[in-house]
Specification:
Elements (H helix, E strand, L loop, with lengths): L1 H30 L18 E6 L4 E7 L7 E5 L10 H9 L3 E5 L13 H18 L7 E6 L3 H10 L4 E5 L5 H8 L15 H5 L6 E6 L7 H10 L4 E6 L7 H4 L1 H19 L2
Parallel strand pairs: 3-4, 3-5, 5-6, 6-7, 7-8
Antiparallel strand pairs: 1-2, 2-4
Amino acid sequence: MRIRVATLGAGVMLVLAALFAVGRCHETFSMLHPARGDVSVPAGYNPKPRDVFIDTGRGVIHGWFFAVDQNAPTLLYIHGNADTIAKRLEVIKGYIGLGLNVFIYDPHGFGKSQGGSNRFNFVSDAFAAYRHLTERMRIRPHSIIVLGQSLGGVPALRLANKEPVGGLILEGTFISIRQMARDMYPALPLWPLASGDYDNEREIRRLKTPLLIINGSADMVVAPYHSQRLFDIAPEPREYIRVDGAGHTAMYEVSPEAYYGGIARFIERTAGQRSL
C-alpha cells in the first residue's frame, strides 16, 4: 500500500511539474513575439538617427540615437513585446518635437539585434542600454527619462529602481503576469502557474523616481484598471494620464495634445525637481 501511495504521489508531482513547464513555455511564447523585417529609416526623416551597437556579453543589440540638443533630456524608450524600433518612428517624431534626444533599441532577437529573445535578456538589455548612455556617451543619469511601453514597463521599472534616472514613464503597463493570466483565462484557475518574476505591483512600491503613468481608456490588451492600480500604490511624486478612446498603442494618435503635452509637462516638472 505504501508503495502504491508513493507511486501515486510521484505521479501527481510529475503531472504538476509537466503542467508547470508547459505553462511557463506558453507564457514566454505568449509574451515575446520577436520580429526581424526591415529596420531602416525612411528618406527625409529628420533628424537621422545614429546607429548604435551594444555588446551585452550575450550578443550585440542594435539601437538608434536621435540627437536633438546635447543639453536636453534623453528619452530611453523601451518598447513592448512585438515589432521593431522601425515601427516606433511615428511616435518618436513627437518626442523629437518636444526637443528631446531619443534612444531606442531592439532587445535580443528583435530587428538587427543578435541572439534569442527570452525573459532574462528582455530585462538585462535595458541595463546594457543605460550603461551605454551613461558610460560610453557620458549622458548624465538624471537627464535620462525612461519610458517603458507595455511589456517594456517591466525592465523600465526595474531600471528606475536600481539606477539613477530623472523620471519614469509607464505606458499601458500591467500589474503582473499573474494578473494578466487572470484576465486572459477568467474561467480557468491557471494564474497560480504563471511566473511571479514580472511583478510590477511589487516593484512600483519601492520606486523613488518621479513617475508618469499613461494608458488608453479603450485598451483591449492591458485593461485600464492595471494602470489605475499601479498609480494608486505608487509613491509620490506620481502623475496619471488616461487618453479617452485610445487603445493600447494609439494614445499619441488619438490625442497628441494629451499624450505629448502630458509628457512635456512631466519632464519640465522633473527637471525643476532635479535642479533643487
